[in-house]
Structure prediction request, 286 residues.
Amino acid sequence: MIHSMTAFARHETNASWGSAQWEIRSVNQRYLETYFRLPEQFRGLENLLRDKLRAKLNRGKVEVNLRFHANQAAGELNINHSFAEQLLQQAQLLLAKAPQAQLNIADIMRWPGVMETPNDDIDAIQKELLAGFDAALQDFLAGRGREGDAIEQMITQRLTGITEQVSFVRSHLPQAMQWQRDRIVNRLTEIKAELDQSRLEQEMAFIASKSDVAEELDRLDAHIKETQHILKKGGACGRRLDFMMQEFNREANTLSSKAISTEITNAAVELKVLIEQMREQIQNVE
Prediction:
């Protein structure tokens, strides 16, 4: 099973101490990068939360946001007087520069770190917050898995399309070579040139060697099988799949350069379209 790097999850916890909402979101990133927005009193959880993410994720830019709303009636709240005084002093300095502004004490009290919760209460709250984060993380991982399933289905469909194009080119090659031979013979007949059968066969052999795409078709078949194997194995396979798209493109470009008929050219173009569609989706794979 493969996983997408794009997902979002939200979980809310309600208790006697108040409420908290966790939000986890992620987007594409070459490596794993984690960012946290936590209230000041819960900054100590950051390392633990980062370890939890690293244990489950390999790639992606992940943002974690915690909104905490304390219920002051649930327990005793203390004011961090030294911190509050610093805020008031800074606020007074700003008021001196902008006399028309107003100082709102309620805003000062709501500032992270001004209101302190007793340690016993903090420990109990953190335990419930961590349980809420674990629930949000499970939803987040499930979302990445669901989107990964959708991407895998899309890739599988495009691989089927590539298989069909490869089969078409392989079956069309004898007809294309005969068309090329007839075209040369007709041209020589038009100019009334004397046909040297031996020389004609040499020229046809030369053209055949230049337009032989059997090796490219075989490699495309091999790339299809390898990509299917990677999808079946699952896990963090985005980089391997991206490498396979480069290999697919290389063979499609060579096939296009060797095309000797409109049908083969069209097949090469269709291959490039299918490969590009896969490549765009693979950018989302972990």
About this structure: The mean pLDDT is 84. The radius of gyration is 33 Å. The helical segments are 46-56, 81-97, 105-110, 119-190, 197-210, 214-233, 238-258, 262-282.
